[in-house]
Amino acid sequence: MRKEVLPDNRPMTRLIATDLDGTLLRPGGVLSERTRATLDAVDADVVVVTARPPRFVQDLELTGTAICSNGAMVYDLTAREVTHARTLPFDVVRKVCEALAEVIPNVGMAVETGLEVLSEPAFRGFGPNNPHRTLELLDHVFDEAHQVVQLLAWAPDAESDHLMEIASEAVGQHVTVTHSGGLGLLEISPPGVSKAATLETLCRARGIGQEQVIAFGDMPNDLSVLGWAGTAYAMGNAHPLVKQACANHAPPNTEDGVAQVLERLFGL
């Protein structure tokens, strides 16, 4: 890990915002005992900020708050309930799907409802560790979904950065487009929704300033949080754009990088 860039008069840390996959968790979605013990020991709020839905986060048996679906949902980990959700109107979902089908060959679409993922047959962006229900037609997906908190687009053999550029140009005026590293997989949220926007609202409600926040992340969907937080760390395994955006780099997630940094900063 290279030398940290921290101001001499850095204020007390009151909140730690951390991504999950590729950041807090080891490969395979494992929360190590070292990392769990460190999170329990720090004298600060810990907020998970992830593209994952609440049903995934709750299985980690953490307490506190999780910002899920790239900022579209806020989940109380202790009470196990959604306290806030931003959804995509169905007319916007249909418009975005039609527009992407015109500019991305063989694109497949799916929707995250907050309870499950429903997809058309052309969507093959999830492996066995991300269960979803495939319906015969995209219209059936729209009919069955009670709400859409996130739209997912997948194209075979596509590079996610390039795909995000194409999608942002085509539909960026209607939605927020990002990705978290999956091959050819895009995550599409309501306009103005991001991890940072939801975190800022949560911090304001708690009387916490951005200079009192430390953030950790590894993928482009973390850039908004890393840019907003007073102190930001890119993981050693992070996407090149994330490493370029952060002065501070933590060891990789395979080495419990978040725990290593927190142990040092909090004197654990």
Which percent bin holds the helix content?
A: 25-40%
Could you please say which CATH topology of the largest domain applies here? Rossmann fold
| CATH class designation of the largest domain | Alpha Beta
Number of strands: 14
Q: Count of helices? A: 10
Write the H/E string, N to C: EHHEHEEEHEEEHEHEEHEHEHEH
Q: For the report, how would you describe the main beta sheet? A: 8 strands, mixed
**Share in β-strands:** 15-25%
Task: Write a brief structural summary.
It contains 10 helices and 14 strands.
Question: Could you describe the 3D structure shown?
Answer:
The chain has 268 residues and is an alpha/beta fold. Helices cover 31% and strands 22% of the residues. Helix 2 runs parallel beside helix 10. GO terms for molecular function: magnesium ion binding; phosphatase activity.
